[in-house]
Protein backbone atom coordinates (compact mmCIF):
# COMPACT_ATOMS: atom_id res chain seq x y z
CA UNK A 1 0.00 0.00 0.00
CA UNK A 2 1.32 3.40 -0.94
CA UNK A 3 1.04 6.16 1.58
CA UNK A 4 0.20 9.38 -0.23
CA UNK A 5 2.23 12.47 0.38
CA UNK A 6 -0.14 15.24 1.45
CA UNK A 7 1.48 17.81 -0.84
CA UNK A 8 -0.53 18.79 -3.94
CA UNK A 9 0.97 21.56 -6.08
CA UNK A 10 -2.11 21.93 -8.30
CA UNK A 11 -5.63 21.80 -6.86
CA UNK A 12 -8.93 22.35 -8.65
CA UNK A 13 -11.10 24.37 -6.32
CA UNK A 14 -14.56 24.42 -7.89
CA UNK A 15 -14.06 27.40 -10.18
CA UNK A 16 -10.33 28.11 -10.08
CA UNK A 17 -6.96 26.42 -9.75
CA UNK A 18 -4.93 26.81 -6.58
CA UNK A 19 -1.15 26.47 -7.00
CA UNK A 20 1.44 26.19 -4.25
CA UNK A 21 3.83 29.06 -5.00
CA UNK A 22 7.07 27.10 -5.37
CA UNK A 23 9.12 30.26 -5.75
CA UNK A 24 8.40 31.11 -2.09
CA UNK A 25 9.19 27.75 -0.46
CA UNK A 26 10.60 26.82 1.99
CA UNK A 27 10.43 30.14 3.82
CA UNK A 28 6.82 30.93 3.02
CA UNK A 29 3.98 28.57 2.18
CA UNK A 30 1.74 30.61 -0.09
CA UNK A 31 -0.84 29.67 -2.66
CA UNK A 32 -1.78 31.49 -5.86
CA UNK A 33 -5.30 31.36 -7.27
CA UNK A 34 -5.51 31.07 -11.05
CA UNK A 35 -8.76 31.77 -12.92
CA UNK A 36 -7.42 32.75 -16.34
CA UNK A 37 -5.45 30.79 -18.88
CA UNK A 38 -2.93 33.62 -19.40
CA UNK A 39 -2.20 33.62 -15.67
CA UNK A 40 -1.59 29.88 -15.80
CA UNK A 41 0.88 30.38 -18.66
CA UNK A 42 2.69 33.00 -16.58
CA UNK A 43 2.72 30.74 -13.51
CA UNK A 44 4.39 28.00 -15.58
CA UNK A 45 6.89 30.40 -17.14
CA UNK A 46 7.87 31.99 -13.82
CA UNK A 47 8.04 28.56 -12.16
CA UNK A 48 5.35 29.13 -9.54
CA UNK A 49 4.52 25.63 -10.72
CA UNK A 50 7.39 23.54 -12.11
CA UNK A 51 8.49 19.95 -12.65
CA UNK A 52 7.58 18.12 -15.86
CA UNK A 53 4.42 16.26 -14.79
CA UNK A 54 3.15 19.18 -12.68
CA UNK A 55 3.39 21.63 -15.57
CA UNK A 56 1.51 19.09 -17.71
CA UNK A 57 -1.32 19.03 -15.16
CA UNK A 58 -1.24 22.83 -14.80
CA UNK A 59 -1.35 23.30 -18.58
CA UNK A 60 -4.33 20.94 -18.85
CA UNK A 61 -6.24 23.15 -16.41
CA UNK A 62 -4.93 26.18 -18.31
CA UNK A 63 -6.56 24.75 -21.43
CA UNK A 64 -9.89 24.43 -19.62
CA UNK A 65 -9.63 27.98 -18.21
CA UNK A 66 -8.91 29.22 -21.73
CA UNK A 67 -11.84 27.26 -23.15
CA UNK A 68 -14.30 28.78 -20.71
CA UNK A 69 -13.07 32.28 -21.61
CA UNK A 70 -13.98 31.78 -25.28
CA UNK A 71 -17.23 33.61 -26.01
CA UNK A 72 -18.80 31.79 -28.91
CA UNK A 73 -21.19 28.94 -29.52
CA UNK A 74 -19.70 28.26 -32.99
CA UNK A 75 -17.68 25.05 -32.89
CA UNK A 76 -15.11 26.05 -35.56
CA UNK A 77 -14.48 29.44 -34.00
CA UNK A 78 -14.18 27.83 -30.58
CA UNK A 79 -11.61 25.28 -31.81
CA UNK A 80 -9.56 27.90 -33.57
CA UNK A 81 -9.49 30.11 -30.44
CA UNK A 82 -8.65 27.06 -28.33
CA UNK A 83 -5.63 26.50 -30.58
CA UNK A 84 -4.42 30.02 -29.62
CA UNK A 85 -4.81 29.14 -25.93
CA UNK A 86 -2.78 25.96 -26.57
CA UNK A 87 -0.04 27.92 -28.33
CA UNK A 88 0.30 30.40 -25.45
CA UNK A 89 0.69 27.52 -23.02
CA UNK A 90 3.15 25.69 -25.30
CA UNK A 91 5.33 28.82 -25.43
CA UNK A 92 6.00 28.79 -21.69
CA UNK A 93 8.75 26.18 -21.33
CA UNK A 94 10.33 24.14 -24.15
CA UNK A 95 11.98 21.08 -22.61
CA UNK A 96 9.47 19.09 -20.56
CA UNK A 97 7.44 17.07 -23.05
CA UNK A 98 4.66 16.47 -20.51
CA UNK A 99 3.53 20.04 -21.17
CA UNK A 100 3.06 19.35 -24.89
CA UNK A 101 1.63 15.90 -24.19
CA UNK A 102 -1.07 17.26 -21.87
CA UNK A 103 -1.97 20.12 -24.23
CA UNK A 104 -2.18 17.68 -27.17
CA UNK A 105 -4.49 15.44 -25.18
CA UNK A 106 -6.75 18.39 -24.33
CA UNK A 107 -6.82 19.57 -27.97
CA UNK A 108 -7.60 16.03 -29.18
CA UNK A 109 -10.42 15.74 -26.64
CA UNK A 110 -11.95 18.97 -27.91
CA UNK A 111 -11.73 17.93 -31.57
CA UNK A 112 -13.11 14.46 -30.96
CA UNK A 113 -16.14 15.67 -29.00
CA UNK A 114 -19.10 16.35 -31.27
CA UNK A 115 -21.19 18.16 -28.63
CA UNK A 116 -21.89 21.85 -28.16
CA UNK A 117 -19.18 24.29 -27.12
CA UNK A 118 -20.59 24.14 -23.61
CA UNK A 119 -20.35 20.35 -23.59
CA UNK A 120 -16.81 20.38 -24.98
CA UNK A 121 -15.77 22.87 -22.30
CA UNK A 122 -17.24 20.63 -19.59
CA UNK A 123 -15.41 17.60 -21.02
CA UNK A 124 -12.15 19.56 -20.99
CA UNK A 125 -12.47 20.12 -17.25
CA UNK A 126 -13.08 16.42 -16.72
CA UNK A 127 -10.06 15.58 -18.88
CA UNK A 128 -7.81 17.91 -16.89
CA UNK A 129 -8.99 16.25 -13.67
CA UNK A 130 -8.35 12.85 -15.26
CA UNK A 131 -4.80 13.81 -16.31
CA UNK A 132 -4.15 14.91 -12.74
CA UNK A 133 -5.56 11.74 -11.19
CA UNK A 134 -3.68 9.51 -13.63
CA UNK A 135 -0.42 11.27 -12.82
CA UNK A 136 -0.91 10.75 -9.10
CA UNK A 137 -1.60 7.04 -9.62
CA UNK A 138 1.30 6.78 -12.06
CA UNK A 139 3.72 8.28 -9.56
CA UNK A 140 2.63 5.86 -6.86
CA UNK A 141 3.26 2.96 -9.26
CA UNK A 142 6.68 4.37 -10.24
CA UNK A 143 7.55 4.63 -6.55
CA UNK A 144 6.72 1.01 -5.93
CA UNK A 145 8.28 -0.26 -9.19
CA UNK A 146 11.50 1.43 -8.14
CA UNK A 147 11.72 -0.94 -5.19
CA UNK A 148 12.16 -3.83 -7.63
CA UNK A 149 15.38 -2.43 -9.08
CA UNK A 150 17.05 -0.69 -6.17
CA UNK A 151 20.17 -2.48 -4.92
CA UNK A 152 19.40 -5.05 -2.22
CA UNK A 153 22.78 -4.66 -0.63
CA UNK A 154 23.22 -2.91 1.68
CA UNK A 155 19.72 -3.53 3.02
CA UNK A 156 19.31 0.16 3.86
CA UNK A 157 20.38 2.59 1.19
CA UNK A 158 21.74 6.07 0.94
CA UNK A 159 20.34 7.62 -2.23
CA UNK A 160 21.48 10.74 -4.03
CA UNK A 161 18.98 12.79 -5.99
CA UNK A 162 19.02 15.98 -8.03
CA UNK A 163 16.56 18.86 -8.43
CA UNK A 164 13.03 18.30 -7.13
CA UNK A 165 11.09 15.35 -8.45
CA UNK A 166 8.65 15.04 -5.59
CA UNK A 167 5.00 15.76 -4.97
CA UNK A 168 5.67 19.40 -5.89
CA UNK A 169 6.91 18.39 -9.35
CA UNK A 170 3.98 16.08 -10.13
CA UNK A 171 0.30 15.71 -9.26
CA UNK A 172 1.56 14.30 -5.95
CA UNK A 173 4.00 11.71 -4.51
CA UNK A 174 6.72 12.27 -7.12
CA UNK A 175 8.83 10.25 -9.53
CA UNK A 176 12.44 9.88 -8.31
CA UNK A 177 11.39 11.22 -4.92
CA UNK A 178 8.40 8.87 -5.14
CA UNK A 179 10.83 5.92 -5.31
CA UNK A 180 12.65 7.42 -2.33
CA UNK A 181 9.31 7.78 -0.48
CA UNK A 182 8.50 4.12 -1.18
CA UNK A 183 11.98 3.04 -0.06
CA UNK A 184 11.54 5.00 3.17
CA UNK A 185 8.12 3.43 3.79
CA UNK A 186 9.62 -0.05 3.27
CA UNK A 187 12.50 0.77 5.62
CA UNK A 188 15.04 0.42 2.83
CA UNK A 189 16.41 3.94 3.11
CA UNK A 190 18.82 5.48 5.56
CA UNK A 191 19.12 8.94 4.11
CA UNK A 192 18.71 11.07 1.00
CA UNK A 193 21.49 13.27 -0.28
CA UNK A 194 19.91 16.16 -2.14
CA UNK A 195 22.02 18.17 -4.56
CA UNK A 196 21.22 21.83 -4.00
CA UNK A 197 20.74 22.15 -7.80
CA UNK A 198 22.20 25.46 -8.88
CA UNK A 199 21.06 27.90 -10.03
CA UNK A 200 17.43 27.72 -8.83
CA UNK A 201 18.12 25.49 -5.84
CA UNK A 202 15.16 23.14 -6.25
CA UNK A 203 17.08 20.52 -4.23
CA UNK A 204 18.09 22.76 -1.32
CA UNK A 205 14.67 24.41 -1.17
CA UNK A 206 11.98 22.03 -2.42
CA UNK A 207 13.36 18.48 -2.04
CA UNK A 208 14.67 19.33 1.41
CA UNK A 209 11.27 20.82 2.34
CA UNK A 210 9.36 17.76 1.14
CA UNK A 211 11.69 15.40 3.00
CA UNK A 212 11.26 17.39 6.19
CA UNK A 213 7.44 17.27 5.76
CA UNK A 214 7.56 13.47 5.49
CA UNK A 215 10.25 12.89 8.12
CA UNK A 216 12.74 11.50 5.58
CA UNK A 217 16.34 12.12 6.71
CA UNK A 218 17.97 14.46 4.20
CA UNK A 219 21.42 15.96 3.75
CA UNK A 220 21.79 18.84 1.31
CA UNK A 221 25.09 19.11 -0.56
CA UNK A 222 26.22 21.54 -3.24
CA UNK A 223 26.30 20.03 -6.72
CA UNK A 224 30.09 19.98 -6.78
CA UNK A 225 30.20 17.67 -3.72
CA UNK A 226 28.40 14.73 -5.36
CA UNK A 227 31.55 13.27 -6.98
CA UNK A 228 33.38 13.37 -3.67
CA UNK A 229 30.48 11.62 -1.91
CA UNK A 230 30.49 8.84 -4.52
CA UNK A 231 34.28 8.48 -4.33
CA UNK A 232 33.96 8.12 -0.56
CA UNK A 233 31.49 5.24 -1.02
CA UNK A 234 28.72 7.23 0.66
CA UNK A 235 26.11 6.74 -2.10
CA UNK A 236 24.43 3.41 -2.98
CA UNK A 237 22.28 4.67 -5.85
CA UNK A 238 21.42 7.85 -7.74
CA UNK A 239 17.81 8.47 -8.77
CA UNK A 240 16.72 11.44 -10.88
CA UNK A 241 13.61 12.45 -12.79
CA UNK A 242 13.24 13.40 -16.45
CA UNK A 243 11.81 16.19 -18.54
CA UNK A 244 11.99 14.39 -21.86
CA UNK A 245 13.24 10.92 -22.79
CA UNK A 246 14.09 10.16 -26.42
CA UNK A 247 13.17 6.80 -27.97
CA UNK A 248 16.69 5.45 -27.34
CA UNK A 249 16.57 6.39 -23.65
CA UNK A 250 18.67 9.57 -23.82
CA UNK A 251 17.23 11.69 -21.03
CA UNK A 252 16.91 15.45 -20.59
CA UNK A 253 16.72 16.48 -16.97
CA UNK A 254 17.81 19.37 -14.77
CA UNK A 255 21.23 20.79 -15.55
CA UNK A 256 23.86 18.81 -13.65
CA UNK A 257 22.22 15.42 -14.19
CA UNK A 258 24.65 14.42 -16.95
CA UNK A 259 27.68 15.14 -14.76
CA UNK A 260 26.15 12.99 -12.01
CA UNK A 261 25.60 10.11 -14.44
CA UNK A 262 29.22 10.24 -15.64
CA UNK A 263 30.54 10.23 -12.09
CA UNK A 264 28.13 7.44 -11.06
CA UNK A 265 29.36 5.30 -13.98
CA UNK A 266 33.00 5.88 -12.97
CA UNK A 267 32.25 4.79 -9.41
CA UNK A 268 29.94 1.87 -10.32
CA UNK A 269 27.00 3.49 -8.56
CA UNK A 270 23.68 2.53 -10.23
CA UNK A 271 22.03 5.51 -11.89
CA UNK A 272 18.25 5.41 -12.31
CA UNK A 273 15.79 7.68 -14.09
CA UNK A 274 12.22 7.60 -12.75
CA UNK A 275 9.54 9.02 -15.05
CA UNK A 276 6.02 8.42 -16.36
CA UNK A 277 5.71 7.13 -19.92
CA UNK A 278 4.18 10.51 -20.80
CA UNK A 279 7.76 11.85 -20.52
CA UNK A 280 8.92 9.67 -23.42
CA UNK A 281 9.02 11.53 -26.73
CA UNK A 282 8.89 8.78 -29.35
CA UNK A 283 9.21 11.39 -32.11
CA UNK A 284 12.86 11.87 -31.18
CA UNK A 285 15.19 9.00 -32.05
CA UNK A 286 17.85 10.30 -29.66
CA UNK A 287 18.50 13.17 -27.28
CA UNK A 288 20.36 15.46 -29.69
CA UNK A 289 17.20 17.26 -30.81
CA UNK A 290 15.67 17.79 -27.36
CA UNK A 291 15.14 21.55 -27.01
CA UNK A 292 17.09 22.88 -24.06
CA UNK A 293 15.57 25.84 -22.26
CA UNK A 294 17.93 28.72 -21.60
CA UNK A 295 16.83 30.93 -18.72
CA UNK A 296 17.72 34.47 -17.68
CA UNK A 297 21.36 34.97 -16.57
CA UNK A 298 20.21 36.67 -13.36
CA UNK A 299 19.51 33.15 -12.05
CA UNK A 300 23.31 32.74 -12.01
CA UNK A 301 24.61 36.17 -11.06
CA UNK A 302 22.05 37.19 -8.49
CA UNK A 303 20.86 35.70 -5.20
CA UNK A 304 18.03 37.77 -3.73
CA UNK A 305 19.20 41.35 -4.04
CA UNK A 306 22.88 40.42 -4.00
CA UNK A 307 24.75 40.54 -7.31
CA UNK A 308 27.58 37.99 -7.32
CA UNK A 309 29.63 38.82 -10.41
CA UNK A 310 31.25 41.96 -11.77
CA UNK A 311 29.80 43.75 -14.77
CA UNK A 312 31.35 42.88 -18.13
CA UNK A 313 30.92 39.12 -17.60
CA UNK A 314 28.90 36.87 -19.91
CA UNK A 315 26.69 34.09 -18.60
CA UNK A 316 25.29 30.89 -20.05
CA UNK A 317 22.29 29.39 -18.26
CA UNK A 318 20.96 26.17 -19.84
CA UNK A 319 18.29 24.77 -17.54
CA UNK A 320 18.63 21.14 -18.65
CA UNK A 321 21.18 18.70 -20.04
CA UNK A 322 20.93 15.36 -21.82
CA UNK A 323 22.27 12.17 -20.28
CA UNK A 324 23.09 9.45 -22.84
CA UNK A 325 21.01 6.30 -22.32
CA UNK A 326 24.17 4.20 -21.96
CA UNK A 327 24.86 5.89 -18.60
CA UNK A 328 21.43 4.98 -17.22
CA UNK A 329 21.04 1.64 -15.40
CA UNK A 330 17.25 1.58 -15.86
CA UNK A 331 14.30 3.86 -16.50
CA UNK A 332 11.62 3.26 -13.87
CA UNK A 333 8.11 3.79 -15.26
CA UNK A 334 4.57 3.07 -14.10
CA UNK A 335 4.70 -0.18 -16.13
CA UNK A 336 7.99 -1.36 -14.65
CA UNK A 337 11.70 -0.70 -15.13
CA UNK A 338 13.40 -0.99 -18.49
CA UNK A 339 16.93 -0.60 -19.86
CA UNK A 340 17.14 2.58 -21.98
CA UNK A 341 18.17 0.62 -25.09
CA UNK A 342 15.07 -1.58 -24.72
CA UNK A 343 12.61 1.28 -24.16
CA UNK A 344 11.17 1.33 -27.69
CA UNK A 345 10.67 -2.44 -27.92
CA UNK A 346 9.27 -2.52 -24.40
CA UNK A 347 6.64 0.08 -25.23
CA UNK A 348 5.77 -1.65 -28.53
CA UNK A 349 5.35 -5.04 -26.86
CA UNK A 350 2.99 -3.50 -24.32
CA UNK A 351 1.08 -1.50 -26.93
CA UNK A 352 1.85 1.74 -25.17
CA UNK A 353 0.43 4.66 -27.13
CA UNK A 354 3.09 6.75 -28.80
O1 LIG B 1 13.13 23.57 -14.06
P1 LIG B 1 12.29 22.60 -13.28
O2 LIG B 1 12.32 22.83 -11.81
O3 LIG B 1 10.88 22.51 -13.82
O4 LIG B 1 13.00 21.21 -13.57
C1 LIG B 1 12.50 20.05 -12.99
C2 LIG B 1 13.30 18.86 -13.28
O5 LIG B 1 14.29 18.90 -13.97
C3 LIG B 1 12.81 17.56 -12.75
O6 LIG B 1 13.88 16.70 -12.47
C4 LIG B 1 11.92 16.90 -13.81
O7 LIG B 1 10.95 17.80 -14.25
C5 LIG B 1 11.26 15.69 -13.30
S1 LIG B 1 9.99 16.09 -12.14
C6 LIG B 1 9.22 14.70 -11.66
UniProtKB/TrEMBL annotation:
<feature type="binding site">
    <location>
        <begin position="50"/>
        <end position="52"/>
    </location>
    <ligand>
        <name>substrate</name>
    </ligand>
</feature>
<keyword id="KW-0413">Isomerase</keyword>
<feature type="binding site">
    <location>
        <begin position="253"/>
        <end position="254"/>
    </location>
    <ligand>
        <name>substrate</name>
    </ligand>
</feature>
<comment type="function">
    <text>Catalyzes the interconversion of methylthioribose-1-phosphate (MTR-1-P) into methylthioribulose-1-phosphate (MTRu-1-P).</text>
</comment>
<dbReference type="InterPro" id="IPR042529">
    <property type="entry name" value="IF_2B-like_C"/>
</dbReference>
<protein>
    <recommendedName>
        <fullName>Methylthioribose-1-phosphate isomerase</fullName>
        <ecNumber>5.3.1.23</ecNumber>
    </recommendedName>
</protein>
<feature type="binding site">
    <location>
        <position position="202"/>
    </location>
    <ligand>
        <name>substrate</name>
    </ligand>
</feature>
<dbReference type="GO" id="GO:0019509">
    <property type="term" value="P:L-methionine salvage from methylthioadenosine"/>
</dbReference>
<feature type="binding site">
    <location>
        <position position="93"/>
    </location>
    <ligand>
        <name>substrate</name>
    </ligand>
</feature>
<dbReference type="InterPro" id="IPR000649">
    <property type="entry name" value="IF-2B-related"/>
</dbReference>
<dbReference type="Pfam" id="PF01008">
    <property type="entry name" value="IF-2B"/>
</dbReference>
<dbReference type="InterPro" id="IPR037171">
    <property type="entry name" value="NagB/RpiA_transferase-like"/>
</dbReference>
<keyword id="KW-0028">Amino-acid biosynthesis</keyword>
<feature type="site" description="Transition state stabilizer">
    <location>
        <position position="163"/>
    </location>
</feature>
<feature type="active site" description="Proton donor">
    <location>
        <position position="243"/>
    </location>
</feature>
<dbReference type="GO" id="GO:0046523">
    <property type="term" value="F:S-methyl-5-thioribose-1-phosphate isomerase activity"/>
</dbReference>
<comment type="pathway">
    <text>Amino-acid biosynthesis; L-methionine biosynthesis via salvage pathway; L-methionine from S-methyl-5-thio-alpha-D-ribose 1-phosphate: step 1/6.</text>
</comment>
<keyword id="KW-0486">Methionine biosynthesis</keyword>
<comment type="similarity">
    <text>Belongs to the EIF-2B alpha/beta/delta subunits family. MtnA subfamily.</text>
</comment>
<dbReference type="InterPro" id="IPR027363">
    <property type="entry name" value="M1Pi_N"/>
</dbReference>
<dbReference type="InterPro" id="IPR011559">
    <property type="entry name" value="Initiation_fac_2B_a/b/d"/>
</dbReference>
<dbReference type="InterPro" id="IPR005251">
    <property type="entry name" value="IF-M1Pi"/>
</dbReference>
Amino acid sequence: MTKESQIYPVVWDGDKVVLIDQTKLPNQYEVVEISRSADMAEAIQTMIVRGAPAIGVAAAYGMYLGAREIKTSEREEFLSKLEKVAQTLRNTRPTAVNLFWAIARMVKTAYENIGTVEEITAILLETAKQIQLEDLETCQKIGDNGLEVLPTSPTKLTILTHCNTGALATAGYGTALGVIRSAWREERLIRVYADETRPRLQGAKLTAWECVQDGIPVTVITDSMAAHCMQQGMIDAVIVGADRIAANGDTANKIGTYALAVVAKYHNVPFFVAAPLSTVDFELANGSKIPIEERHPSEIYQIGNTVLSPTGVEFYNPAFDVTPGELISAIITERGAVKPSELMGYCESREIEK
